């Protein structure tokens, strides 16, 4: 039985063969159209309806060029069709862009056949396959390819595609100049043919890892290229499906340099380029491990530049820095290759000596270090002399751990300083006891004021001529519940070093002046009060305000206060000291040079600074009745002081003979055990009242 559709076609006498139509009707993914000799539609399957949007009814009888052929192609199509009918020139199958009912482009792959029916009429059948999806996929693929190209262009990395045995199949380089060798030399070649052996090994082991672990593996390697050593990072990805390896290589030389710089900054001192504390201690730990393993000795030398602070303060930090650089240079000269010199900070250096046979090796190096510093430094056309104090701790005798050795070498260095500087000192156990006590004192001193452990004692001063009290010197006492009575000679330097002298000194001034006020009132005499000042206190900007306020508070004249300073204070030569002394003098406060004769005793200080009083140290008073030289010195000092308009106080007078001699020499005032030891405030009140 003929179908309805075929019947309609028959009506137009365009029938082809019925079974074929039945087949086309069953397929709707392909468009099949039949045309008569005038290109009128005689057959239009469901696939055509879907593809071109015309229903069969709409299409049937329409001309091909009016239906789905774009205007521009119309003439060509008509000519080709005519040519086929007339001359039997087949229209080849081709990809075409046709047009649907809505005027939209339709991409198809179009094949054509020509039948001649029973009436000898020619009928062309077009079989069109929709290429929209294919086109889209193609476009997508092209787009992706372009995108990849663009990415490749933008990324400076090198991409290599290789077989898992290391044979390079393909590559991509944004800049061909980045390639180690030209592409011809590596495409199709194995990496072993052109890369250094150790790099090939790295590649092979990491490729094996990437294949095994099925993840991206990265590693670093370096190549010696004509432009220098270049560092690379390679990332390996296994393209399992294709049994290929993708390697992405990046030049990381810059990062390497930055990392190296950061590493250098973390481990080396930026001024001298020597290993810093961190690295030096790390090396010390290594040296100790090695020394233990090989049963060897090692030594730690702790070095401190003597009076470096003075150089920095007086000549400026620039000169100080140059001196440090030059010192580092000299230290290196003395050392053996296997030794280490590091800078711990400030003017402190550390030297690590390994593989020593005995102490003498360290001693020889310490001596050489002192020697090499004997040559003056030439900085900015200036000759400077700088000396060293060296503390030595030897492994294993003075400790097994790096920290112990360092601490002990530091202790020994302090000993070298105490010995007069410009020398070395080997650590001994006794030093440790000293340092332990020092640390304990410093720790306890911090709370001493709050715990009211500090008390002022007063030692009366006498005028020789009148044999009467003229004032007293305030001397600090510290009685600690467990450490006992700690002498000021021991705790004052520690207070000075730790800065605690500032609050302690303020306490002393306030206490002493309050007592003076009470004492003056009670005896109705204008006594004076001598108070010791440490160098650090002169840097305290609040000091003078405190003195002025306290004097005003207790209603005491400026002239009743004497501030005692030692020559050491003046040796610093700093401008703030000069300014403070001038201001003290301008206020009318008396200035006294303490311990005269013990230090450098530079007479120029007496002329240079506004002193009122000179105190001869008790070490000379002790000897005046025993040896002529001390007596001559004291005699000369008194004469000289008087010629400069200074009043002379002799300290430490213990005997009547000393007093008589001092009186003969024209000394003005005296203090000492002969009259009274330093005593508590209350006792002094009684003592002086009894003499009234
Ligand atoms: N052998 C003997 N010694 C006598 C005699 N007469 C006095 N002395 C001692 O000689 C020292 C004189 O004090 P200095 O030279 O200023 O030396 C003082 C001073 O430099 C410092 N010092 C004491 N109190 C203070 C203070 O409040 N502030 C500061 N910055 N230093 C202080 O501590 C040093 C020692 O003080 P002290 O132990 O009290 O020692 C005192 C005193 O007790 C004597 O006849 N024979």
Tag the structure with descriptive keywords:
692 residues; alpha+beta; Beta-Lactamase; Alpha-Beta Plaits; 4 domains; 46% helix; elongated; disordered N terminus; binds ligand C2E
In the residues, how many domains can be counted? 4
The low-confidence parts are 1-16
- From the coordinates shown, what is the CATH architecture of the largest domain? Alpha-Beta Barrel
How are the strands of the largest sheet arranged?
18-19-21-22-23-24-25-26
Assign the CATH superfamily of the largest domain: EAL domain
State the end-to-end CA separation.
160 Å
- The overall pLDDT average reads 90
How would you characterize this protein structure?
- Strand 18 and strand 19 (468-480) form a beta hairpin.
- The model is unreliable at 1-16 (pLDDT under 50).
- Helix content is 46%, strand content 25%.
- It has 692 residues and is α+β, with helices and mostly antiparallel strands.
- Helix 11 (308-315) packs antiparallel against helix 12 (317-334), helix 15 (429-448) packs across helix 16 and helix 17 (501-523) runs parallel beside helix 26 (681-691).
- The protein has four domains: 4-132, PAS domain (Beta-Lactamase), CATH 3.30.450; 155-256, PAS domain (Beta-Lactamase, 2-Layer Sandwich), CATH 3.30.450; 274-427, Reverse transcriptase/Diguanylate cyclase domain (Alpha-Beta Plaits); 441-691, EAL domain (TIM Barrel, Alpha-Beta Barrel), CATH 3.20.20.
- It is elongated, with a radius of gyration of 52 Å.
- The protein has 26 helices and 27 strands.
- The strands form five sheets. An eight-stranded mixed beta barrel has the order 18-19-21-22-23-24-25-26, surrounded by five helices. It has a five-stranded antiparallel β-sheet with strand order 2-1-5-4-3. A five-stranded antiparallel β-sheet has the order 7-6-10-9-8.
- Ligand C2E binds next to strand 19, helix 16 and strand 23.
């Amino acid at each position: 039985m003929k179908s309805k559709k075929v019947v309609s076609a028959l009506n137009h006498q365009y029938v082809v063969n019925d079974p074929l139509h039945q087949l086309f009707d069953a397929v709707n993914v392909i468009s099949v159209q039949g045309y008569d000799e005038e290109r009128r539609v005689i057959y239009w399957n469901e696939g055509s309806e879907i593809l071109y949007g015309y229903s069969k009814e709409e299409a049937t009888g329409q001309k091909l060029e009016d239906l789905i052929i774009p205007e521009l192609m119309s003439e060509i199509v008509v000519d080709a069709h005519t040519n086929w009918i007339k001359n039997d020139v087949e229209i080849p199958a081709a990809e075409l862009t046709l047009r649907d009912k809505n005027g939209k482009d339709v991409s198809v792959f179009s094949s054509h056949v020509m039948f001649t029916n029973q009436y000898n009429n020619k009928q062309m059948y077009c079989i069109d396959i929709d290429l929209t999806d294919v086109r889209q996929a193609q476009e997508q693929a092209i787009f992706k390819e372009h995108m990849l190209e663009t990415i490749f262009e933008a990324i400076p990395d090198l991409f290599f595609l290789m077989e898992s045995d290391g044979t390079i199949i393909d590559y991509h380089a944004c800049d061909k100049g980045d390639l180690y060798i030209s592409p011809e030399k590596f495409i199709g070649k194995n990496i072993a043919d052109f890369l250094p052996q150790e790099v090939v090994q790295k590649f092979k082991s990491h490729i094996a890892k990437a294949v095994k672990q099925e993840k991206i593996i990265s590693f670093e390697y370096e190549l010696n290229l004509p432009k220098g050593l270049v560092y690379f990072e390679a990332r390996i990805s296994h393209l399992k499906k294709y049994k290929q390896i993708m390697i992405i290589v990046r030049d990381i030389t810059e990062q390497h340099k930055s990392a190296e710089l950061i590493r250098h900054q973390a481990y080396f001192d930026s001024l001298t380029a020597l290993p810093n504390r961190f690295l030096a201690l790390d090396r010390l730990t290594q040296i100790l491990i090695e020394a233990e393993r090989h049963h060897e000795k090692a030594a730690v030398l702790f070095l401190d530049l003597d009076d470096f602070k003075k150089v920095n303060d007086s000549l400026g930090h620039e000169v100080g820095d140059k001196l440090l650089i030059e010192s580092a240079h000299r230290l290196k000269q003395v050392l053996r290759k296997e030794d280490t010199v590091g800078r711990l900070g400030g003017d402190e250096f550390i030297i690590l000596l390994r593989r020593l046979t005995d102490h003498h090796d360290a001693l020889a190096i310490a001596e050489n270090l002192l020697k090499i510093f004997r040559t003056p430094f030439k900085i900015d056309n200036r000759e400077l002399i700088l000396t060293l104090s060296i503390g030595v701790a030897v492994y294993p005798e003075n400790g097994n751990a790096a920290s112990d050795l360092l601490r002990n070498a530091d202790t020994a260095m302090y000993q070298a300083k105490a010995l007069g500087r410009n020398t070395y000192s080997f650590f001994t156990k006794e030093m440790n006891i000293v340092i332990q006590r020092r640390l304990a004192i410093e720790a306890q001193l911090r709370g001493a004021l709050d715990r009211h452990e500090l008390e002022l004692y007063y030692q009366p001063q006498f005028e020789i001529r009148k044999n009467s009290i003229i004032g007293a010197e305030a001397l600090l006492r510290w009685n600690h519940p467990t450490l006992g009575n700690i002498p000021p000679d021991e705790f004052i330097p520690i207070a000075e070093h730790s800065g605690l002298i500032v609050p302690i000194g303020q306490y002393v001034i306030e206490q002493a002046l309050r007592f003076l006020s009470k004492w003056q009132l009670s005896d109705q005499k204008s006594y004076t009060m001598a108070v010791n000042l440490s160098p650090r206190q002169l840097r305290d900007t609040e000091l003078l305000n405190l003195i002025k306020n306290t004097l005003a508070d207790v209603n005491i004249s400026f002239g009743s206060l004497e501030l005692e300073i030692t020559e050491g204070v003046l040796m610093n030569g700093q401008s703030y000291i000069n300014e403070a002394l001038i201001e003290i003098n301008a206020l009318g406060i008396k200035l006294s040079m303490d311990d005269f004769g013990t230090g450098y005793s530079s007479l120029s200080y007496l002329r240079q600074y506004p002193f009122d009083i000179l105190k001869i140290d008790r070490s000379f008073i002790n000897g005046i009745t025993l040896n002529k030289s001390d007596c001559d010195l004291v005699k000369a000092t008194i004469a000289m002081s008087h010629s400069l308009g200074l009043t002379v106080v002799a300290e430490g007078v213990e005997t009547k003979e000393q007093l008589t001699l001092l009186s003969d020499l024209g000394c003005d005032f005296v203090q000492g055990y002969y009259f009274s030891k330093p005593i508590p405030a209350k006792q002094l009140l009684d003592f002086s009242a009894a003499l009234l």
